Structures
1.
Amino acid sequence: MSTAREPKLVIAIDGPSGAGKSSTSHLVAERLGCAYLDTGSMYRALAVWCSDRGIDAADAQAVIDAARDLPMTVSPSSTDFAIALDGADVTARLHLPEVSGMVSGYAGIRDARNALNEKMREIIAQAGRIVAEGRDITTVVAPDADLRILLQADAARRIARREAELNGAADTTTVTEQVVGRDAKDAASSQFETPAPGVVLIDSTELTLEEVVEKVIDLVPEQLRWPEEH
Ligand code: DC
């Protein structure tokens, strides 16, 4: 939550899987005293809610109704980001492989996206200072953010990073499908491959996480960098 002394600051970061959106967003948020919003997790929560109730992604109207009425509470913390559905914390389930495998189907339904986009805008407005990440955050959800970044990296590097994250839990073919295959599906419903006008492209292929974080912070107008500089 921002106080009267803290200037408002909205940073929006999008880009494909494995480009480093989450790690970068977390660190930037911590260093700049910002909340953090992982919009992908909101789509994952919608998928969990629907599948728990037998609502298939093929039943678009049922998914739209669920998205509009979703009893979802998001805690937009940079250290303890959490999502509850009807009061039950589902955070630990959101990145299970079964959820990763089905989420694109739910996220591809336009009016379900519109419903979640509204919730995202409310969270951003309430937070005051926030780093929000997700596929169409720079273009659709927060086109008026103070700083908008598209984080890119070569596909080979993105696959290698995701493999390292999974620490041998999945083979290269599975990881390639997760990274490149899911992006291909997601590309039908959101545009995150090329930067829109005013969006800064950062290619992280040859950069360390720390270098990317520094580049992002350097792009934030100085008077908005509180508390790092105070
Ligand atoms: O970033 P992620 O893997 O947690 O995203 C989960 C899914 O939600 C993925 O299929 C992309 C989709 N998504 C989206 O369409 N728009 C967003 N703003 C965020 C995620």
2.
Amino acid sequence: MTGKAPIGIFDSGYGGLTVFQKIREALPHCDFIYLGDNARAPYGPRSFDIVYDFTRQAVFKLFEMGCPLVILACNTASAKALRTIQQQDLPRSDDPTRRVLGVIRPTVEVLDRLSRSKHVGILGTSGTIASCSYTLEIAKLFPHIRVTEEACPLWVPLVENREADSPGADYFIRKNIDAIFERDPDIDTLVLGCTHYPLLLEKIRKHVPAGVTIFSQGERVAEALADYLQRHPEMNARISEGGSVRFLTTESPDRFSANASFFLGEPAEAGGIRWASEGLNV
Ligand code: DGL
């Protein structure tokens, strides 16, 4: 492998920008390419095979663009595609030293420290919850933690449609919060296992019992990535350090640029990337 290249950040659309915001704060010297598959978002309701297929295409496109390391800044893609890409596709690729990391493992790693009751709740898209990825990962690391998962399929549309602050949002948020605490009233740590949910934090807080920790994963994912680069100097040496960001979307770049600041907290000028039958064409 010659030359240095940006870190690739992938999400189904805009939500990954909430994670990327924290990654950029933690690693301001690194170069990044952010790819949002807005044309095919949301991934949450999609089947395992489809999410895997779309995610694999995007990851290999980022590899093709030179990225030696790709972060799946999306819970649904991490839940449904990460393992297969890591265990099957990467070892068979032309450069098996490239890496793909997700958001679930770093989130799970801190849960034993965060929870006193050892009862943890996970909120996510239908796809993430159906995969049981959080439950399985927690069982591996902390088998003494009891996990309750709740799919909140209407929360992403609430954010995407700018209804996060509306009274209607309270109804759906409360419904899922009540449901998860009815199933386990001893939950003391509630994980926002979806990139959009930090944008609903104020409303979620209103309906969650006092004393419960609500955990947004962005900072933790960023911290885990910085730590990974420190522990892997061979990968760190492959990352270019100009502090630049290139945003790419499979939908309209103008629309991405107009909407991105809502998720990122600052403007983002996007370029286009086009899907073709053989994969992605820049
Ligand atoms: N980024 C997705 C996640 O974190 C939410 C949006 C989607 O469903 O595509 O699960």
3.
Amino acid sequence: MLNFFDLRNENLIEKIQKLKLEKNAVILAHFYQRPEIQKVADFIGDSLELAKKARETNADIIVMCGVYFMAETAKIINPEKKVLIPYYKAGCLMADTAIKEEIIEYKKKKPDTFIVTYVNSSADVKAVSDICCTSANAVKIVKKLYEQGIKKFLFVPDRNLGSYVKEKLGNDIEMELWDGYCYVHDQVSKEDVIFYRERFPKCVVVVHPECRKEVRDLADFVGSTSQIVKFVKQTSAKIVVVGTEEGIINYLKKIAPEKTFYSLYRRFICDSMKFITLSRLYKCLLEEKYEITLDENLIKEARKPIEKMLELS
Ligand code: 13P
Ligand code: SF4
């Protein structure tokens, strides 16, 4: 039987579906979104998949249920479309650690260094970067650039993903790391992995590369959210310990109901992702706010590193 909250949610979901059709809108949602948002979304994916979907869509309105940089990315690659985010304060704290002026200053000092910027960054920062990457393609992209003869890199802003890329490509890579990190993933320690290994010796531990090296080193699998989804689909393990934001567990339970999932950390929650609620999504579609607006020139400049990423990935 449905409880009060389920009933209220069902009612909102119905209204959202109706508005979506009336306005020819598409709802894109990240894996970290609340279960009820995942339920109403047309597509659920990681940062790279969301960017690709945003580029392919025929909808007039794109509603991005994720954090601000994801909506900005959708706008940059779809300037002619209306892009909305249900709550304008849903920012990514890691993205905030990279500042455009500081990167310009760095480039003045080291003009021969190639700036590789994680999509978890503002449009301003993207505009002064040479290429973007996501956690799904970072290793592949830097490898391709290295093979093309680029030898010096700065990785912005996640020091953990940057160190993972360096590790994967070997010590020949000359890569400096920006001192940014994700407060959600960086709080996990190796003791958390050891705790689960002792409790469930047959479990598999999957973690996001935004986790620290000491955590990645003890994991069975390291990958972006979509890569974690793929791994879970094919593993025979019955118990999976998930080292990324717990919203993804709702999705994993749907695709692998026979498995048991545990969150690697007691509060593995990105508060910004959770700012997106059904009532905010409904209001967003009804009033067509909050709309992402960016200066034309900024769109032009920020688009270049994103397009370069999409070409190489
Ligand atoms: P993914 O691209 O792997 O979905 O990661 C996005 C993110 O913000 C992780 O914290
Ligand atoms: Fe940003 Fe971390 Fe939230 Fe991902 S989990 S959106 S990196 S703050």
